[in-house]
Amino acid sequence: MNQGRDEKTLTGVTLLGNQGTAYEASYNPEVLETFDNQHPYRDYFVKFNCPEFTTLCPKTGQPDFATIYISYIPDVKMVESKSLKLYLFSFRNHGDFHEDSVNTIMNDLIKLMEPRYIEVWGKFTPRGGISIDPYCNYGKEGTKYEEMANYRMMNHDMNPETITNR
């Protein structure tokens, strides 16, 4: 039976439940927080969908809107969801191309929690008559997760999907 978490297992989680949260409008990976995975003996996916992601075009300064999908298999550490929300919000005034934003998010999350596997997919709304949907992934080197990343990359987008954010 799961007895739940006590405050000691949430060391380092400071944003959750904090009513005085400051929302950063400039890129800030330091806002990200982790907590311990209570099931490190098991593979399982954690998925986040952020349908209100915004960033700026680095050339024109115009806003770009996307749904960001993050899926990962945790190892020892997990990202705390409120800190992830604040982190993604921090891109609001950050100028980067779509492809760079998605890779930056993945790189920051790898550095933060060293997951077994992670993928980040950005589905950007069209601007100028074209949409861009960058996808990146990572699996720990020398493990089955590296093989999984290679397989998922080779088979990425092979099946048509329903796009609901445009």
Task: Describe it.
With 166 residues, the protein is of the alpha+beta class. Helices cover 22% and strands 25% of the residues. The protein has helices spanning 81-89, 98-113, 144-154; strands at residues 34-36, 46-56, 63-73, 77-79, 117-124, 135-139. The strands form two sheets. Strands 2-3-5-6 form a four-stranded antiparallel β-sheet, sandwiched between helices. A two-stranded antiparallel sheet has the order 1-4. A hairpin with a 6-residue loop joins strand 2 and strand 3 (63-73). The radius of gyration is 17 Å and the shape is globular. Its EC number is 1.7.1.13.
- What is the CATH level 1 assignment? Alpha Beta
- Category from helices, strands and their pairing: alpha+beta
Question: Percentage of helical residues?
Answer: 10-25%
Beta-strand percent range: 15-25%
Sheet of most strands: 4 strands, antiparallel
Q: What's the CATH H-level homologous superfamily?
A: GTP cyclohydrolase I, C-terminal domain/NADPH-dependent 7-cyano-7-deazaguanine reductase, N-terminal domain
Q: Could you give the order of strands across the largest sheet?
A: 2-3-5-6
Structure described in brief:
This protein has 166 residues and is of the alpha+beta class. The chain has three helices and six strands; from the N terminus they run ββββααββα. The strands form two sheets. A four-stranded antiparallel beta sheet has the order 2-3-5-6, sandwiched between helices. Strands 1-4 form a two-stranded antiparallel sheet.
